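Recall the central idea of this unit: under ordinary conditions, the amino acid sequence of a chain determines the structure it adopts. In this exercise we apply that idea directly, starting from the sequence alone.
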Amino acid sequence: GNSVPEFPSKLDWLNSPPLKFSK
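Accordingly, the structure predicted from this sequence is:
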C-alpha cells in the first residue's frame, strides 16, 4: 500500500519525496 510519511505539510513531501516514491 502507499503510505505517506509524516511531514509538516504535503508540499514538503512533494519537494523531498522518499526514494520509494521517486519517479
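The radius of gyration is 8 Å.
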